[in-house]
Amino acid sequence: MIFRQLFEPLSSTYTYLLGCEETGLAVLIDPVIASLDRDLREVQRLGLQLAYSIETHIHADHITAALELKRKAGSKIAAPAAEGVLCADVNLEEGKPLQVGGIVLNPLHTPGHTAGHCAYALNDRVFTGDALLIEGCGRTDFQQGDAQALYWSVHKKLFSLSDDILVYPAHDYKDRHVSTIAQEKKRNPRLGKNKTLDEFRAIMADLNLPYPKFIDYAVPGNKQCGVCPADLPENLGKYCKQMTESPQG
């Protein structure tokens, strides 16, 4: 399998490029519109054909590139069924793998950050979206977030995977690239170290995080599979422009 971890620095988002070496088919997990050109160049450079863009959830901090990828590369849009993305070509559900060439992604419904959030298991790794970050987790205070649901999503779905499974999150803010299930069980200050549900609820309730500055534009735009709003304020315009620097991880 061809694998690339790509980083968009404005929202600290990881996009994952997976390619089947036998068929040349590829998918992008959580592509960002600001890195559209970079991702298309990488797909072309590797001689791949983009079959799907895949969302872990409706994002609140960036606009997805799904719609533009469909227009420019002919790829289909796949999103968790429980997120209710009406423009998606494929609605992903737990127990129904998505196969692209030799790549078989197994959706895991992991609500809590959002109600319809999905992680995707693939052989020796899992793409955890915002449900489980490296020594952290996504917020639970908007988009039908639920701390109890997230606790059980992580403990019953993700922490039940083998300890040596690699954890690839949707974001990291400290220049980290990958973890493992064992490491998160041991070191995650919110969800690991045998934290109880009550302890986790208290941690999440006490975060006092600011209101996300892009959420009022990102959520409606992503419900349309990646539409940049016409009324985007000038100070937020960079979220829909191509980045001058968008490195690979």
TrEMBL record:
InterPro entries, A to Z: Metallo-B-lactamas, Mito_Persulfide_Diox, POD-like_MBL-fold, RibonucZ/Hydroxyglut_hydro
Top-level lineage group: Bacteria
SUPFAM superfamilies found in the cross-reference section: Metallo-hydrolase/oxidoreductase
Entry keyword set: Acetylation, Dioxygenase, Hydrolase, Iron, Metal-binding, Oxidoreductase, Transit peptide
GO molecular function terms attached to this record: hydrolase activity; metal ion binding; sulfur dioxygenase activity
Domain (Metallo-beta-lactamase): residue spans on this chain: 12-171
Coiled coil: none
Protein family according to the UniProt entry: Belongs to the metallo-beta-lactamase superfamily. Glyoxalase II family.
Protein's UniProt name: Glyoxylase-like metal-dependent hydrolase (Beta-lactamase superfamily II)
Organism: Eoetvoesiella caeni
